[in-house]
Amino acid sequence: MKARLFIETYGCQMNFADSEILASILQPQYDLVPDYSQADLILVNTCSIREHAEQRVFNRLKEFSALKKKRPGMKLGLVGCMAERLKDDLLRSELSIDLVVGPDAYRSLPRLLSEVEAGQKGIDVLLSEEETYQDIPPVRLGSNNISAFISIMRGCQNYCAYCVVPYTRGKERSRDARTIVEEAESLFRQGYREVTLLGQNVNSYKAGELDFAGLMRQVASISPLLRVRFSTSHPKDLSDELISVMAEYPNICKAIHLPVQSGSSAMLKKMNRKYDRDWYLERIRAIRAAMPDCGISTDIIAGFCGETEEDHRETLSLMREVGYDSAFMFKYSERPGTFASRHYPDDVPEEVKLRRLNEIIALQQELSQESNRRDVGKVFEILVEGESKKKTSQATGAPQYFGRTSQNKVVVFDNGILPDGSMVHKVGDYLQLKVLSCSPATLFGEVLSPQA
Ligand code: SF4
User: Fold this and answer.
1) Per-residue pLDDT for 350 more than 90?
2) Residue to probe by mutation, ligand 1, list 48, 50, 158, most atoms within 8 Å of CB
3) Angle between helices 350-375 and 309-322 (to 10 degrees)
4) What CA–CA distance (Å, rounded) separates 171 from 165?
5) Comparing C-alpha atoms, which of 156, 150, 134 is closest to residue 81?
6) What pLDDT score was predicted for residue 144?
7) Which of 22, 67, 126, 452 has the highest Cβ tally under 10 A?
């Protein structure tokens, strides 16, 4: 009988994709369980991007360490970015951690687990210049069997001044295109209808002569019924060719997450983002010219080192100029070891950071609401993803369903019930929906006709 494995994942989509690799590597010895209290091995896949994220993990590790006292045979492992960053400190701490494994060392897990069984600590945090796990078929942990992540490259060497990723995930390396296309084809054959190509800096993908635009063309050509998304892109690598491939293929989703971080050219220079405000806005104009209906989202940092009120106002004015559909917004949090932590004082007072962040959030709420209002009355094709957890139909009392538009907006709708009790529209169907109303976060629509 196999032992039981529980994986808890924090952070970005890359980490969720990595957990699927971890599950695959350990599959010969472990069955996944949904409840940690039953597990023989708990792996916590961690994120170092913000101090808050690390603190959440520490609190969770304390809980798991307490559980270990009651279940002495249970093993506890910490993997991912925090393993890379904190290594020895973690093994020395009062937490009872058996394994510390960095993001490029997952293949060594079976060996490290044998060492743990022999009474030693298992540690491997070596970064690699080649590892992409391209030969390991992920165990899909997503629940809907319709959308899947495909990790196409790893690492980052942009060294944005505030960011710890180049230190925790190492240099950029891309997977062989053939393995990516085969993975997408296999998913499509299994009934998946959407793939998201993932990388820390996905649009700097390069395998021989093939760039990211060329790869997108190959994946989008698998079937018009397979939607293709990607995340996260860097503005400096958003080429005209990529924009034109996106416009050309109807099944490449019209949604770009393009982190701007600040609207001030002075801040962008200090952040080492390698573009300025004008350049970013020119890329936005190029996207809008080719795809007027493209959804655009972003990441913004409030209160980076030396940020003035004028810099902050430039961020707000850029947000208005772009009219983002949605955004992830954070206060600057200094990460040890980064360029900023070594060279710039973290000098914006906490209350000023918080006030600026609140202004950014309030503006984005307005922009998101406006963006949703503009969609009322329009018709969209959606891919049905599942039952809505919160909404029930006023007509039937049954749970409503939801799907996503190409622009990555959630639309909730009433699903019909057939005489045998099954639903008229199934998960994985494409539907034409007319949007009737909206809240700041969600669109509500009615089905016009099934498509395919
Ligand atoms: S592009 Fe910049 S922010 Fe993104 S992972 Fe690389 S260093 Fe970090």
Assistant:
1) yes
2) 158
3) 10
4) 10
5) 156
6) 82
7) 22
CATH placement of domain 379-450? 2.40.50.140
Q: How far is the CA of 160 from the centre of ligand 1 (A)?
A: 6
C-alpha span between 302 and 101 (Å, rounded):
32
> What is the architecture, at CATH level 2, of domain 256-374?
2-Layer Sandwich (3.30)
In the chain, where are the structural domains located?
Answer: 3-124, 144-253, 256-374, 379-450
The residue whose CA is least distant from atom 2 of ligand 1 is 160
Q: Note the CATH architecture for domain 144-253.
A: 2-Layer Sandwich (3.30)
From the CA of 79, how far away is ligand 1's center (Å)? Answer: 20
Interval between CA 175 and ligand 1 midpoint (Å): 19
- CATH fold, domain 3-124, is Rossmann fold (3.40.50)
**pTM for the structure as a whole:** 0.93
Ligand 1 pocket, CB under 6 A: 156, 158-160, 163, 165-166, 200-201, 234
- Residue 261 alpha carbon, nearest atom of ligand 1: 3
pLDDT of residue 443: 96
Quick check: do 3-124 and 379-450 share a fold?
A: no
Q: Around Cβ 359, how many Cβ atoms within 10 Å? A: 15
**DSSP percent split of the chain into helix, strand, coil, nearest 5:** 35, 25, 40
Ligand 1: centre distance to CA 106 (Å) = 22
What pLDDT digit, counting tens, does each position of 268-307 carry? 999 999 999 999 999 999 999 999 999 999 999 999 999 9
C-beta neighbour count of 384 within 10 angstroms = 26
Give the residue-averaged pLDDT of 421-442.
92
